[in-house]
Design goal:
about 350 residues; alpha+beta; Lyase, Ornithine Decarboxylase, Chain A, domain 1; 4 domains; seven-stranded mixed β-sheet; 12 helices; flat
């Protein structure tokens, strides 16, 4: 026996917990090699067969550390109650009065009655007994109650599965400039856990708990499983977002499969790629930069030819000029804009 190919199997510790679950690894590379060599040696020694050259094909463990996804945050949705009417209207609907009384007298951590009252309020709205304005007020009362429960629990140091569930439900949604289905398909398809973290402002304490949503219209286009200080959580600590400043987040240990498995869901194509190498001085060099798909290229993948689309648009613009719906300069400006968009990037540019 000259060579023995053992295939793959060397795990990657995605969670950093050094455990035996599917997202981690509870052994070192030395342990892995020693187990292979000693097992093969012990087996072959009993039969007198010469030891072979051992070959492994641990692709995931080889390349997982070599790629990451970098994306900026575009916007944030907060689930925070608006200020309640002061004083609360005495002639408001009875169900809203009940919600307000529960909110003002709440001194514990049981919010189940708030859920009951909210559900009654929603049913009355469906039955036509409440207006849209009253429905909005009822939802805001429930949100204010939920936030009060969470705040009280934090201040008293109490924790329970119900409180954790409520905290997760109130988490912010940070909208990232990426597509889960194009760049991180395994997080959706097989619940792959990848390390995710902000790339800057590390000297500042994160003050928000959030999930990450992508650009697609799909409700599955999100990241809501994270490793935080060795624990699996549904939210990720992030810094407060300001629309006047870029905020970058990275997903790590992606390897080679994510890019090759990604698809064109919602017609979001390949992202820009930069190959970076650490140099001897401890800095880095940009070895290669590859542009991602253009909008025109993506449309051609689904049989919409950019040149044909542009020609159709040109004819429409010329017809609009003849009908005096566009001026000649406006026609040129419109066609230039259309052509630039066909040659443009499908993701938002920071």
């Amino acid at each position: 026996m000259g060579y023995l190919d053992l295939g793959g199997g060397l795990a990657v510790d995605y969670s950093g917990r050094c455990s035996g679950d599917g997202h981690s690894r509870n052994y070192s590379l030395e342990d892995y090699c020693q187990a292979i060599v000693t097992t093969i040696a012990a087996t072959l020694d009993t039969t007198g067969i010469a030891h072979p050259h051992i070959v492994t094909e641990s692709g995931r463990a080889t390349v997982a550390y070599s790629s990451m996804l970098l994306f900026n945050i575009l916007d944030v949705m907060h689930f925070e109650a608006a200020p309640l009417p002061q004083p609360f209207p005495a002639d408001e609907a009875e169900i809203l009065q009940e919600q307000h009384r529960f909110f003002t007298t709440l001194n514990g951590h049981d919010y189940h009655q708030a859920v009951v009252l909210r559900d009654r309020m929603r049913q009355q709205f469906r039955d036509g007994q409440l207006s849209l304005r009253q429905r909005t007020l009822g939802e805001n009362l429930f949100l204010a109650t939920a936030q009060k429960v969470v705040t009280t629990a934090r201040q008293s140091g109490l924790a329970s599965p119900q409180i954790s569930e409520l905290q997760d439900a109130l988490a912010d949604i940070y909208y990232g400039n990426f597509s889960v289905f194009q760049s991180l398909p395994d997080t959706w398809a097989i619940d792959q856990l990848l390390p995710v973290a902000p790339l800057h402002r590390h000297e500042q304490q994160p003050t928000r708990e959030a999930i990450l949503s992508d650009l697609t219209c799909d409700c599955d286009g999100k990241l809501d499983q994270f490793i935080v200080n060795g624990e699996l959580r549904k939210t990720l600590p992030l810094h407060a977002f300001s629309p006047d400043e870029n905020y970058y987040v990275g997903a790590f240990l992606m390897g080679a499969y994510q890019e090759t498995l990604g698809d064109l869901h919602n017609l979001f194509g390949d992202t820009h790629v930069a190959s970076v190498r650490i140099n001897e001085e401890g800095g880095y060099d940009l070895i290669e930069e590859i542009s991602g798909d253009t909008i025109g290229e993506i449309l051609s993948y689904v049989e919409y030819i950019p040149s044909v689309l542009f020609d159709r648009m040109r004819k429409e613009a010329e017809q609009a000029v003849r009908e005096q719906r566009l001026s000649v300069p406006e026609r040129q400006q419109f066609l230039t804009l259309f052509g630039d968009n066909l040659a443009g990037y499908p993701y938002y540019k920071p």
